[in-house]
Amino acid sequence: MTIEITHTRREGTLIEGTSRGDGSAEILRLREYGRTQRQPFRWSRNLDCWYLPHSRDHATYTPSLELLAQRLRDAGFEVTLTIDNADRRSFSDAEKEREEKAEGRAERFGGYAASATQNSEAAWKSSHEISERFAFGQPILVGHHSEGRARRDHARMDNAMRKSIGERDRADHLTGRAQAAANYERFKKDPGRTLRRLDKLRADLRAVEKWQRGESAKGFSRSPADPELETEHQELTEEIQHWEQVIKDAEAEGFKMWSKADFTRGDFVLYRGTWYEVLRVNPKSVTIPHIHNGVGQRVVRAADNRHDGWTWTAPYDDVSGRKSDDEIQQSTRAEAAEHQEQAQQAPPIKEPVPAAETCPTSHPSPWHAKARRWALYRHP
User: Fold this and answer.
1) 319: buried, middle or exposed (CB in 10 Å: 19+, 13-18, 0-12)?
2) Nearest CA to 171 among 90, 117, 91, 244?
3) How far apart, in whole angstroms, are the C-alpha atoms of residue 374 and residue 376?
4) DSSP designation for 348
5) Which of 69, 119, 203, 283 has minimal Cβ neighbours within 10 Å of its Cβ?
6) Backbone phi, then psi, for 12, in 5-degree steps?
7) In a 3-state reduction of DSSP, which class is residue 300?
8) Are 122 and 92 in contact, with CB atoms under 8 Å apart?
9) pTM of the prediction?
10) DSSP secondary structure code for residue 363 in this structure
């Protein structure tokens, strides 16, 4: 039978035509393939063929597949190799499928975690029920007819408790995976992350356009006739449009996109929970006093810089708010008045009344009497 190696951006790298025990698995499991040349192929029961992980929606590294094909031919197999990097799906379709898979993983791992929790509780209950026989410290009676059963009970308790702990650890691990899968879409569409992602994608698109014009970008050049450049241009354009729509949706829901036009020197910017005075306004960030000044502080002014004039930059995609100097002063006065009012309304603190000292001679305890007799016995 002929082994078929195919790669498209739509489906990834797939290998069909193998059979169990024919010797191809040993070659496919070598960690020498893929774009990193460190990946093995894996068997998929759903696809009923071998596949290369993380090969979908990417151009393949052709020399890696040619090496695999040659190894299979050297082992006596008839091999065909087909590569079509232009066959792809849209970025929106790919992202929608990833979100659906994340939802499925969240549901699946949530069920696994619930099952592991039930197994842990059942194992603990089993161990506890066995231990009731030894609740009063009954030892193992060596040589007695109950010795064998007692030792078996101890072994069963130990095994049950170990299983309970293991299942509990497994439940915690699966709960974490379920939570991570459930948060996939929220983290992926976080406006701050999306803005940073867009900056990178736009830079990549500019580089591709330079290569298409025959110019150098990112420190090297590529042939303008390379058909891969057109595919990369289409992919980057679609991805940028997708994330720009995410930002538009976030703005419609109240998200504010900060920029250079929103700040002037002397304003205050809310950066990671602390208000910092703006020292300088830059195209992509504002310069503020060093963040070490903000430890335990709500407002940090330029005069509060205790680190020899050290500064920090707050990117606009990480900014949460803006206030003028007057607004900061008003809020500070309002908070001070509120704290003073709360202090005046607080009930007075009563001093604790010391307990009356007990005279050992007036209320002797059995212990005192016993200690006194022992002292007289030692030192008559």
Assistant:
1) buried
2) 117
3) 5
4) P
5) 283
6) 85, -165
7) strand
8) no
9) 0.70
10) S
